[in-house]
From TrEMBL:
Source organism phylogeny: Bacteria, Bacillati, Actinomycetota, Actinomycetes, Kitasatosporales
Protein name according to UniProt: 3-oxoacyl-ACP reductase
PROSITE patterns xref list: ADH_SHORT (PS00061)
Keyword flag Cytoplasm: no
SUPFAM superfamilies assigned to the protein according to its UniProt record, in alphabetical order: NAD(P)-binding Rossmann-fold domains (SSF51735)
Gene source species: Streptomyces xiamenensis
GO molecular-function term, one example from the UniProt record: oxidoreductase activity
Repeat listed as a keyword: no
Length: 243
């Protein structure tokens, strides 16, 4: 199985879950040192450093995977995050908006598209699985329009892939988490007050954990979920409905 953003948080928990089931995780990400540390934790894991916004690096990563494994049974797109702060002082709202939206689509949408297109002919047929990590922000907004928009863009792409790959016996689904603790998503910037407010929106009174998402992905990749495709599965404790 291949997981982008596999060095930390949800990606790492997912790689560990698949490894426990006997799979060999291929960890893709920009930071080689982070991937190496993750691979040390997971017996047999293979780190493949690559910037997934760069077509040349994606092609090289695909070639490495092809030479090492030939076929990809499960492809999980976890890489992404919030756009970095705009250059300068951010006082020009149009410049700031252009930066937020461009960077959001580059790191959340383009990364998934390039890696999928690079590996599409290597996906196991039949039985392959393609899984995208979206967000509750794609369903109801979050205050960061660029981020929510870039995650929402994955949904129609996944549905189109489901149609394209269906005849090959490959399923394509989307998992949309809500607030998940123990990740680098907020970069330490989520205040306790804001966290409590997010938790209060859930129906079960708690934040999610990386394992909640990992186990959902593991199930969607299993034979038991073979007739589920072109779906968005929410993992947010009911927060999308709100209290």
């Amino acid at each position: 199985m291949v997981v982008s953003g596999g060095g930390t948080g949800i990606g790492l928990a997912t790689a560990e879950a698949f490894a426990r089931g006997g799979d060999t995780p291929v960890l893709i990400g920009r930071r080689a040192d982070v991937l190496e540390r993750a691979a040390e934790r997971i017996d047999g894991a293979v780190p493949v450093p690559a910037d997934l916004t760069d077509p040349e690096q994606v092609a090289r990563a695909s070639a490495v995977i092809g030479e090492r494994f030939g076929t990809v049974d499960v492809l999980i797109h976890n890489a992404g995050g919030l756009a970095p702060a705009p250059p300068g002082d951010g006082s020009d709202p149009l410049v700031a908006a252009a930066h937020e939206w461009t960077e959001s689509f580059r790191i959340n949408t383009l990364t998934a598209v390039l890696l999928t297109e690079a590996l599409r002919d290597r996906l196991a047929s039949p039985g392959g699985r393609v899984l995208f990590l979206s967000s509750i922000a794609a369903l109801r907004g979050s205050g960061a329009g660029g981020y929510g928009g870039s995650k929402a863009a994955l949904h129609p792409y996944a549905f189109d892939l489901a149609r394209r790959f269906g005849p090959r016996g490959i399923t394509v689904n989307v998992v949309a988490p809500g607030l998940i603790d123990d990740t680098e998503f907020f970069g330490g910037g989520l205040s306790e007050e804001r966290r409590r407010a997010r938790v209060a929106e859930t129906l079960n009174g708690r934040a999610g954990e990386p394992g909640d998402v990992a186990q959902t992905l593991l199930w969607l990749a299993s034979h038991a979920a073979g007739h589920i495709t072109a779906q968005v599965i929410q993992v947010n404790g009911g927060a999308e409905r709100g209290r």
